[in-house]
Structures are given as C-alpha cells and as structure tokens.
Write a structure and sequence with these properties.
Elements lengths: L3 H30 L2 H6 L4 H9 L3 H34 L18 H18 L5 H19 L1 H4 L3 H4 L5 H23 L21
Helix pairs in contact: 3-4, 4-5, 6-9
Length: 212
C-alpha cells in the first residue's frame, strides 16, 4: 500500500466526515419534509412515512428496502470486525484456539463467525423485551461508555461519576456484565502463561516490519 502509515488514518477520518455529513443532510431533509408532530407521532416508522411524503406509493417501499439492505451491510461489517478480533485473540492465545480455525478454501474464521452470529441473534431477540429502539440505543451507548471509561481507567479512575455514567439497571447489567465476562478468558489465559501478557505495550509506537 502506498504511504501505508498515513493512508489508513486519512481514510478513517474521511469516512467519519462523510458519514457525519450524510446523517446531517438526512436529518435536515427529514425535518424540512415532515413537521415535528408527524415525526413524533411516527417515531417508530419515520422512514416509511418519509417515503410517502417524498414519493407517494413507491417511496415508502423503496425506503424499506434501502433500510433492509443497509442493515444487512452493517451486520456483515460488524461480523467482519468482530470475527477478525476473535481470530487475532485466539492466535495470541487470549481466547480459545478453536475460534481461530479457518476454512481451507475461503480462508475465513468460520467458527468465530458462527459464534458472533449466535450472540448477535440472542441480543437481537433479547432487545425486543427491553423497550423502544431509542431506549435500546441509549442504554447500549451508556453501557459502552462505561466500558470505555474503565478501559481508560488511568484518566478516570479517580472520578467515580465518570466510571459509572448511568444508574439504569440495563446499563449496569450490560456494562458491568460485559466487563465481567471479558475477565473470564483474561484470567484463564493469564494463569496459563500466554505470551501475550508478557509483551510490552506498543500503543503510539510503530512496530518494525518483521514484527507484524
């Protein structure tokens, strides 16, 4: 890759900017096309109503198809990211080695993919009993925020309010529960003496080519 040290970072920043711009344009366009009362009354199905406003009859169906395809694409992207993480962790012997098994033909971590799909399906089914989409997203963001604060504990450990951003039961269960589950393999493979835990931190430094 040409200028590999800069290209990945620039690509990531440009991607965030483009996605942010698209969301802003869509938000502004939605508020211009639909009054606030109509948006609030159809909060669970805004896209279908917006489609009828923009293109009556066919518009709503096209937006439903677009959302379905984007959801599939997002799921595939999530599967790729998580399965690669599981594959790398199994290779470093911080997770069970079977998660790193790959298909001989396609060279993909198939067991890790199945594991992620099963967990995702379970979370999807469980989310139907939590509440509205807005509630689910808010709780998920708060739970992830809690985990990030613990991850950056060197900066926030002295401020309990920042380590524990919400008092919601769902946030507590998912935030603290997720961390607790993550500690299980960490302790197991640390006790087994995995070489990964003996490495020096490389955050902020560039590894030599023969170490990658």
């Amino acid at each position: 890759m040409k200028d590999s040290k800069r290209s990945a970072g620039i690509g990531g920043i440009l991607g965030v900017i483009i996605v942010f711009a698209l969301y802003e344009v869509f938000t502004v366009a939605t508020n211009l096309a639909m009054p606030a009362r109509e948006i609030e009354a159809n909060s669970g199905d805004v896209l279908a109503v917006l489609g009828q406003e923009v293109w009556h009859g066919v518009g709503g169906k096209l937006l439903v198809i677009a959302v379905m395809l984007s959801t599939i694409a997002t799921l595939e992207t999530t599967l790729i990211q998580v399965t690669r993480s599981l594959f790398a962790m199994s290779r470093e012997k911080t997770l069970p080695e079977f998660l790193g098994r790959i298909l001989p033909v396609r060279q993909t971590p198939w067991l890790a993919t199945i594991a992620v799909a099963v967990v995702s399906l379970g979370l999807f089914i469980g989310s139907n009993y939590v509440g509205s989409v807005g509630t689910i997203l808010t709780d998920a963001i708060d739970a992830i925020g809690m985990q990030i604060c613990v991850y950056r504990r060197g900066l926030h450990v002295l401020d309990p309010r920042r380590v524990h951003p919400s008092d919601g039961a769902v946030v507590d269960w998912f935030g603290v529960g997720g961390l607790a589950i993550g500690f299980i393999p960490l302790v197991i493979y640390w006790v087994k003496g995995s070489p990964y835990f003996k490495q020096k931190p490389t955050l902020g430094s560039v590894l030599p080519a023969d170490a990658v």
